[in-house]
Amino acid sequence: MIFNVEQETLPREELEAIQLQRLQNLCERVYANVPHYREQFIKAGVTPADIRSLSDLSKLPFTEKQDLRDNYPFGLFAVPKENIVRLHASSGTTGKATVVGYTQRDVNNWAELMARSFMAAGASRSDFIHNAYGYGLFTGGLGVHYGAERLGATVIPISGGGTKRQVSLMDDFGATVICCTPSYGLVLHEAAQQAGIDMRDLPLRVGIFGAEPWTDEMRNDLQDKMGIDAVNIYGLSEIMGPGVSIECAVAKDGMHIFEDHFLPEIIDPVTGEQLPPGETGELVITTLTKEGIPLIRYRTRDITSLNYTPCKCGRTHVRMNRITGRSDDMLIIRGVNVFPSQIESIILETEGASPHYQIIVKRDGNLDTVEVQVEIDESLFSDAIKNLQKIEMRIQKTIKEFLGVSSKVRLVEPRSIERSQGKAKRVFDLRDKA
Ligand code: ADP
Ligand code: K
Ligand code: ZN
């Protein structure tokens, strides 16, 4: 089922024609209304009239998170302030918050894209959508909320926290769709277990998880634990919020980017050069229709690749593969690049290890040290120490074998690692950043 059949199944040629026309219009709007962009265009020696084909995109300057910070709070807005109907701000996972503004049309488009997302995930107007994304300045809660209403479904605006109550309301109301971060999904499952509820017995059938990196191994785990189809949703406040892209439940193989609104590229994060289709690099997005704070070639710092092969769901929009990490998240351990998600995959594939973990990086003299703390699966807690050591050794060995770094793996007691209600903080890099 496709929410907007016409837009979501456009033949590539027609889609590109729409993209070009919107890109040209965007360039004119930012050149006329945003001093920052006018300066950047002049610096790059380009005017809106120079954009004659989509390949001219590479002539345009990049926008970085720092540009939003430098123009804090409203410097990049492209419309008079009275046309802004809502503000959101990023949670500031990496540094100072950035503020974004939406016009009424932006908010309407967002609701449509979220409605498209729900339908791609296999939801419909008869669903009960339990929305445990945080409501507030974070885009997750309200983004999902208005999309669910646009779809015509019943939304339960529970927000994050109060986990015990969430579980009993899911049971009472018969939620069929759950929306939250994958890490909070695990927390909900744990609370259900404690309350003697097997989530597989609930009417729940779809999970829409995002806002933080997760792995296919985590997907399998959540699907098993909840008896659902789990799909990946992606977004960021600078570009809109959730609903920039989502997996279709039909293929569950990469997230369709709503290309009539967003123009994606993959670049080499070091040189800034555009990479050919299929190669892995940093995702860069140009917002084609945003009015409040339109962004040209925004560097997301998220590492992925694009898949232009046709999808069996019938959507023609390109698919982005799972984010392996933010380029800012990548750990360099004794010269070796490691993404936390690689460690997550290994942990989840190890029997006896739970999906609750944290990674602690320190510097000992000149040497980087990594400690991976993993909670033991509850069922093994009473096992002989010898068996537990075997699990530690197995994870340690696999990390060394596959990632090329030595680490110390330590099994810790069930429930000893702090639980998050939104994005989990799993990496503690305590090295001096000097
Ligand atoms: P911040 O975390 O900077 O405060 P946002 O809340 O807008 O800002 O988060 C956006 C970021 O969250 C993305 O750039 C990406 O790194 C991460 N993210 C969102 N969805 C996913 C997903 N499905 N998989 C991996 N990472 C994601
Ligand atoms: K997010
Ligand atoms: Zn598809």
TrEMBL record:
It comes from the Bacteria. The keyword Nucleotide-binding applies. GO terms for molecular function: nucleotide binding; phenylacetate-CoA ligase activity. Residues 78-286 form the AMP-dependent synthetase/ligase domain. It catalyses: 2-phenylacetate + ATP + CoA = phenylacetyl-CoA + AMP + diphosphate. One of its GO terms (biological process) is phenylacetate catabolic process. Its EC number is 6.2.1.30. Pathway: Aromatic compound metabolism; phenylacetate degradation. Keywords: Ligase, Nucleotide-binding. CDD domains: PaaK. Residues 335-431 form the AMP-dependent ligase C-terminal domain. Catalyzes the activation of phenylacetic acid (PA) to phenylacetyl-CoA (PA-CoA). Belongs to the phenylacetyl-CoA ligase family. PANTHER family: PHENYLACETATE-COENZYME A LIGASE. Monomer. This is Phenylacetate-coenzyme A ligase.
